[in-house]
Structure formats: structure tokens, C-alpha cells
């Protein structure tokens, strides 16, 4: 080996050691900056509500939900089988209006279950 090739090998070996160190240092600085930014943003936010400001149950107790079986509206059929209905020809405004079903038993896959 000659002296110039030894210098090239030594310089590339040193660069291999410095580059990961520099990348790690940049990463640590970026993480410290991100944590400080998060702390500043957190300080600007309003405080969390105190226990007396938390929502309470109504005096009547918890509200109950009503479960009932509904009958669907029938879909209108086109006059001619080759004709199709467009959305503006259907009744309703997008909210299905249905009425309470006479049979309030829930449908099950297995007829033996209740």
C-alpha cells in the first residue's frame, strides 16, 4: 500500500464514523425541538374542566332508549319494466318515514331463540 491510498482509506473510515454521529445529533436536536414546541402548545390550551364543571346525570336519572320494530316504506315500482326510477322520482327527502310494526318481536336467524 502506498501512502496516498492509506490516506484515502483513513479519510473514508473517518467519514463513516462522523456521518452517523452527525445524523444522530441532528435527530436528537429535532426531537428536543418537537418536545419544546409541544410544551408551548400545551400551555396555550385552555385548562381541563374541574370536577364540579363535569356533566351530571339529569335528576330524573339516565335516559332510556326506546327499541321498537318499524315497518319499511314500499319502494315505488316503475310503470314499464325497462324504465328505471331516478332519485327525484322516489318519495321522501332521504329520511325514511316508517310506522310502528304490529309485531314487535325481533326477527332472529334461529327460530328457537328469543
Tags for this model:
114 residues
Radius of gyration: 36 Å
**Oligomer description:** single chain
Derived structural class: mainly alpha
Q: Give the SSE string.
A: HEE
Termini separation:
90 Å
The share of residues in extended strands comes to under 5%
How would you describe the overall organization of this protein?
With 114 residues, the protein is mainly alpha-helical. Helices cover 37% and strands 4% of the residues. The protein has 1 helix and 2 strands. The chain has a two-stranded antiparallel ribbon with strand order 1-2. The protein is elongated and about 100 Å long. The termini are far apart. The mean pLDDT is 79.
Topology (SSEs and partners):
Layout: H1 3-44, E1 70-71, E2 99-100
Antiparallel strand pairs: 1-2
